[in-house]
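Students often ask why we bother encoding 3D structure as a string. The short answer is that it lets us treat folding as translation between two languages. Here is a chain of 127 residues written in the first language.
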Amino acid sequence: MTRAADIEIFFDGACPLCRREVAALRGRDTRQRVRFTDIAAADFDAAAFGKTQTELMAKIHGRLGDGTWISGMEVFRRVYAAVGLRWLAAVTRAPGLSQLLDGAYAIFARNRLRITGRCSDQSCRTA
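And here it is in the second language, the structure alphabet:
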């Protein structure tokens, strides 16, 4: 019997930075505690998850084993913990640093298409 994932991460597989991060996380996920779902895949259907593609593209989302949705830096914190990087998850929760990282991620998410060179007139407005 296959063990259910602790967390499912919904990532943009067309984003080079996102692919690099996911590749590193997959490499550490030796216990298969994370399910990686590429929202840029041709067969991905956001509606099947009760979300819109625009919503999922605006920032990273995750779904916990109990069905709870999370987004932003909290997704990374949970995934880091799931792949054995609990120390990194703990550091990113430190007072002050937590708020700084949350804000930095929000800025990155708003500008991700521009930063990764995938910006068109309409596509840079993801949120």
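Translate back mentally: The chain has five helices and four strands. Keep this in mind for the problem set.
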